[in-house]
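Per your request, structure below.
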């Protein structure tokens, strides 16, 4: 399928669309995590680009910069390394949110490096603070921080973010979420029509391209959906550490399963909740969306995390679940409760703990997953 080939190319060459935009005179705002309002970035006339790591890039030469990250997950160290070695030299600005501790701590590390090494080309930095509870007072605090972020974007662009531009950005973003939900329907159908490897590329690429262009590809892809072959194998659900690469899905699906859904910020969680345009003004709709979006493990109370994860697995009619936690991931505290609750729903789990960012012992991992799949099939 031609549309998927283009999506695949943009997934593999993640900076391609942003560099093209930059070469035409546009400016690029990079950001970490999916709790940064990319609609505001788009409405300000910038290209929003989510930062990802690369497990195949060596990070040893930059270990000196991560003393304060205590100790960082592999994907965090990889992203920092790529910033310090010029892999993201097309960024004009970089937004670092108050997310997991290791991401949070990138801000002072980069700020210190930027001040002490003026030769090193780093983008202008911005720290977006936010609270991690779902309470009303937290929402009011986060509203003020998002308002400050809007003001900063207007300062960077030199123009006011109009209601019209925000409305357009929200409409394009919501359309992207709606189309991705249709893609999710293809993988959750019985039998599944697309693999988890394909789905992860389709979803993640929405964060590396302008959503308007991504929507065109999604429409073309969905228009050819009738020609997609059916898949067999155990229906698998995946949750755990952020998955900014295909390693785990490729291994799971090479063992005879299909990943039909996930609870992951690079997967379904990124598009599950659209901006509610019934809320007026639209800025308040943005605040509402980013306060009430599907919760990641940093959000309190944890019960919301567990409920969301379990509902995703049950809704996808998963037969088994794989929980994947990379080494040093400090946000895996919700996994035991999720495993227990899934067990009450008749969904067994495999917990892969302390995994390296770059999969080293592939055959051992495959053997564990095959054994689990066999047990699920009994």
């Amino acid at each position: 399928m031609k549309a998927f080939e283009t999506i695949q190319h943009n997934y593999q060459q993640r900076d391609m669309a942003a560099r093209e935009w930059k070469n035409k005179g546009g400016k690029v705002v990079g950001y970490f995590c999916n709790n940064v309002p990319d609609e505001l970035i788009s409405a300000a006339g910038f290209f929003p680009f989510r930062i990802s790591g690369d497990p195949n890039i060596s990070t040893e030469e930059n270990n000196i910069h991560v003393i304060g990250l205590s100790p960082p997950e592999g994907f965090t160290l990889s992203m920092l390394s790529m910033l310090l070695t010029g892999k993201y030299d097309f960024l004009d600005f970089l937004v670092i949110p108050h997310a997991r501790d290791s991401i949070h701590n990138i801000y002072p590390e980069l700020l210190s490096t930027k001040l002490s090494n003026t030769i090193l080309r780093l983008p202008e930095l911005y720290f977006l603070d936010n609270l991690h509870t779902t309470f009303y007072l937290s929402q009011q605090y986060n509203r003020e921080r998002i308002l400050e972020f809007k003001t900063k974007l207007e300062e960077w662009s030199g123009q006011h973010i109009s209601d019209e531009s925000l409305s357009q950005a929200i409409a394009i973003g919501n359309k992207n979420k709606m189309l991705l939900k249709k893609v999710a329907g293809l993988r959750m159908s019985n039998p599944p029509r697309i693999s988890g490897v394909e789905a992860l590329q389709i979803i993640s690429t929405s964060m590396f391209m302008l959503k308007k262009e991504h929507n065109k590809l999604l429409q073309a892809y969905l228009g050819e959906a009738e020609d997609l072959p059916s898949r067999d194998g155990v229906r698998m659900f995946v949750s755990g550490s952020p998955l900014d690469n295909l390693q785990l899905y490729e291994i799971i699906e090479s063992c005879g399963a299909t990943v039909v859904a996930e609870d992951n910020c690079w997967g379904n969680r990124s598009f599950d909740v659209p901006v509610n345009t019934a809320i007026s003004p639209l800025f308040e709709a943005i605040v509402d969306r980013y306060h009430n979006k599907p919760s990641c493990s940093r959000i309190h109370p944890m019960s919301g995390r567990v409920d969301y994860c379990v509902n995703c697995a049950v809704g996808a009619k998963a037969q088994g679940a794989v929980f994947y936690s990379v080494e040093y991931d400090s946000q895996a505290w919700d996994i035991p409760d999720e495993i227990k609750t899934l067990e009450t729903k008749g969904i067994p789990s495999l917990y892969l703990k302390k995994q390296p960012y770059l999969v080293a012992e592939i055959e051992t991992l495959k053997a564990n997953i095959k054994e689990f799949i066999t047990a699920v099939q009994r």
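The two ends are 36 Å apart (CA to CA).

Regards,
D.
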